[in-house]
Amino acid sequence: MSRVIAIANQKGGVGKTTTSINLAASFAASGVPTLLIDCDPQSNSTSGLGLQKDSKRPGTYHLLMGDAEASALLLPTAIPPLKIIPASKDLIGANLELVNAEFREYRLRHALQTIRNDFGLLILDCPPALDLLTLNALVAADSVLVPMQAEYFALEGVSELLDTIERIRQTLNPSLFVEGVVLTMYDDRTNLAQEVASELKSFFGDLLYETCIPRNIRLAEAPSHGKPAILYDPKSRGAESYTKLAQEVLERIRTRSSVITQPSA
Predict the structure, then answer these.
(1) C-beta separation of 165 from 47 below 8 A
(2) What is the pLDDT, as a whole number, of residue 265?
(3) Which residue of 87, 106, 199, 260 shows the fewest CB atoms closer than 10 Å?
(4) CA distance 264 to 155
(5) Under 8 Å between Cβ of 155 and 127
(6) Whole-Å CA distances, 96 to 27, 127, 132
(7) SS3 for 41?
(8) Paired sense of beta strands 177-184 and 121-125, if any
């Protein structure tokens, strides 16, 4: 069974796109057929996987507007099991054009139905806003993975996101749940980061992944070369951390699935 995971946090600069690119690449490198869908008009996931930002190329905008089938938008990457549906700045227009559209919140969900079973994992890179693009992603998703920094203001933004997720559960997507929370740009040398991490562990409990993503120069450099860290420098701390996080996510998915499928006594 495939799983659609939205990478979301309306606070900017917390590592959503870095997490989307590197988790998708790590899933694919482990042999899982993976699709990364760039839902952000900044289209950094697109360029981060080596594709030029091109408003003339069909992508997520055309998918949402019903102008193209998902299967026609899949583009290859340097990691064969990983495909991407690219974005461009045209995606900004979708927020306005979908306002009065019928079933506007379900556009992405319906569009992905035809290809969903072709992939084990579909990763949605959301923009840093709780707009119609993010709403479409959350309605299309099975779960939400939340990247956040270990800082005192982090919980304010996440609490708003959790409220949004709960509202969506009540109205548009009853099965949506939080896949997990991952600390990004983490510096374990500072007392502040350790204190905040401890507080977040108390707040989120088992939802907080054991794996933290460190501040890492190679991880920051990789997008400018159009490569995920696992290709740019596979031995860097950043690449190794995302590989470890991918395995932790997959293990939780497998554990959850085995519990669901176990016959009742």
Answers:
(1) no
(2) 41
(3) 260
(4) 38
(5) no
(6) 34, 15, 9
(7) coil
(8) unpaired
What letter does residue 147 receive in the DSSP assignment?
E
Find all residues with CB under 8 Å of 33, minimum gap 6, and list them: 81, 118, 119, 120, 121
Q: Are 143 and 6 in contact (CB under 8 A)?
A: yes
Side-chain half-sphere exposure of 41, counting CA atoms within 13 A: 14
Beta bridge partners of 214: 186
Give residue-wise pLDDT tens across range 69-108.
Answer: 999 999 999 999 999 999 999 999 998 899 888 899 999 9
Paired tokens of 75:
């583009």
pLDDT in tens, 140-155: 999 999 999 888 777 7
State how far the alpha carbon of 22 is from the alpha carbons of 38, 65, 186, 253, in Å: 13, 28, 16, 18
Distance CA(45)–CA(42), nearest Å, equals: 8
Cβ proximity of 111 and 105 under 8 Å: no
* Element at 179 (helix H, strand E): strand 177-184
Please spell the DSSP secondary structure of 87-143, one letter per residue.
Answer: --GGGHHHHHHTTTSTTGGGHHHHHHTTTGGG-SEEEEE--SSSSHHHHHHHHH-SE
Model pTM?
0.94
Report the alpha-carbon distance of residue 239 to residue 218 in Å, rounded: 8
Q: How far is CA 117 from CA 1, 2, 48, 61, 231, in A?
A: 7, 6, 25, 22, 27
Cβ atoms of 37 and 77 within 8 Å: the answer is: no
* CA–CA dist 82, 77 (Å, integer): 6
Residues in Cβ contact with 175 at an 8 Å cutoff, skipping those fewer than 6 apart: 142, 169
